[in-house]
Design brief:
It contains two helices and five strands; from the N terminus they run αβββαββ. The chain has helices at residues 3-17, 70-85; strands spanning 22-23, 32-45, 51-64, 100-104, 107-119. A five-stranded mixed beta sheet has the order 1-2-3-5-4. The two termini are 18 Å apart.
Length: 126
C-alpha cells in the first residue's frame, strides 16, 4: 500500500476507534466524517529526510441543516474528531471552516471541513 493510502487508513482507523462514523466517497450517512484527498494532496520535504506530507480533507457532516440544535451536534462531532486525531503521531489538529450546507440524496446537512496533514514514513528507496 502506498504511503499516502497508509496515512488515510491510519486516519480512518483512529476516527473509527474514537467512535466516529466515516466515509471515503460522496455517499454518506450523517453523522459522519468524509475523508478525501486534500489540495495539495502530497508534498516531499527534503529537509525532513525525504518524508512525505499527505493532506486529507475531513468533512464533518451532522444532522439536517434545518433541525433544531444542529450546530451543537456539529460542534460535538468536531470535538470527537479532534480527540480521535490526538491518537495519531505526526498529525496536526485541524482548523475547521465555518459551517456550510452539504447535500446527499436531496437532503441538506450541516457540515464543516478541515484539512489535516499527516507526515508519512520515509521512502526506503533512493
Amino acid at each position: 500500500m502506498s504511503r499516502l493510502l497508509s496515512s488515510r487508513a491510519a486516519i480512518l482507523a483512529a476516527l473509527e476507534a474514537g467512535g466516529v462514523n466515516t466515509a471515503t466517497t460522496g455517499k454518506f450517512s450523517a453523522p459522519c466524517v468524509l475523508v478525501e484527498a486534500g489540495d495539495p494532496w502530497a508534498a516531499v520535504d527534503l529537509s525532513l529526510g525525504r518524508r512525505r506530507t499527505g493532506r486529507w480533507r475531513l468533512t464533518a457532516v451532522a444532522g439536517r441543516a434545518d433541525s433544531e440544535g444542529v450546530i451543537e451536534l456539529l460542534a460535538d462531532l468536531v470535538d470527537t474528531v479532534d480527540r480521535a486525531l490526538l491518537a495519531l503521531p505526526g498529525v496536526q489538529l485541524p482548523t475547521w471552516e465555518r459551517p456550510f450546507n452539504a447535500s446527499e440524496s436531496g437532503i441538506t446537512y450541516a457540515a464543516t471541513a478541515a484539512t489535516i496533514q499527516a507526515l508519512t514514513e520515509e521512502d526506503p528507496t533512493p
